Inverse folding.
DNA sequence: TCTTGACCCTCCCCTCCGGGGAAGGTCCAC
DNA sequence: GTGGACCTTCCCCGGAGGGGAGGGTCAAGA
């Protein structure tokens, strides 16, 4: 199948498929005589895995490493488990940071809602930040 | 004061100060005869506002708009209030998305911790994603 | 006076994950 | 044969700067 059909099949864009190939997540894709890419069922399978890996929050670099391990003939499962652990810790930190930021923003919002803007000191640009 | 001193005074990097100037958040900075930037107290004041605006989660574009309003001679406070409201909604959405992702990742992590990696199907790359 | 080290300058490439679009070739149905 | 959909490569764009090359400047000590 051609790139547009493959992209639609896995819910990605044509741009993304070319990008993954360029970045080495896909092996060099077969071409027709006129230069069009031809995607095999196996490559589509690989794209589906990339999609699942993305859904798990992995970066392309992490996904690429998992694929590399599998391509070497090994099972990437223990590596995936480790990465998921790191990912969990990372997510917890991100959520904590965003939550703290949300609290700070909410406080600013409260403050600005209860005070007259006219009292703002120009030298401070905006008194509520 | 020179760029390094100004950067240290407001807790930013030298790179950041040059970047803000290039992007128009700072008016053209005065130069010495040899071309070194010279920061006035007023400019340092402006940098401190930029820092506070960053801490409130505003992007440089949003900060720039606030500065533009103040430079026009108006009070940016009502604009800031609107932006803070948008920011709150945006943060809530981000937190919700990250929390959902965290749940999904935790489920993967549980699943992979309870099943033998040896059972993994190579055709699926990694059975746990 | 000379040197040394810290500081400064501009310029260019890099991040992450593609999106947007230009210029041009190919395929298929009507 | 022609129109439109599809494909190709190539290049620039974002946010917020970081890293480094190559070279100029400043102040203190020998």
């Amino acid at each position: 199948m051609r790139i547009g059909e493959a992209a639609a099949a896995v819910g990605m864009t044509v741009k993304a498929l070319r990008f993954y190939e360029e970045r080495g997540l896909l092996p060099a894709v077969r071409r027709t005589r006129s230069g069009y890419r031809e995607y095999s069922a196996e490559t589509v399978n690989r794209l589906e895995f990339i999609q699942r890996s993305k859904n798990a929050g992995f970066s392309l670099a992490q996904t690429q490493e998992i694929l590399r391990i599998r391509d070497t003939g090994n099972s990437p499962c223990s590596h995936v488990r480790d990465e998921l652990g790191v990912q969990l810790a990372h997510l917890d930190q991100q959520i904590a940071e965003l939550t703290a930021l949300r609290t700070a923003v909410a406080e600013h919002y409260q403050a600005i809602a209860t005070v007259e803007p006219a009292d703002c000191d120009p030298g401070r640009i905006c008194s509520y930040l």
Q: What stands out?
A: Chain B touches chain A through 47 residues (CB under 8 Å). Residues 2-4, 14, 18, 34-37 of chain B lie near DNA strand C (CB under 10 Å from a C1'). The mean pLDDT of chain B is 91.
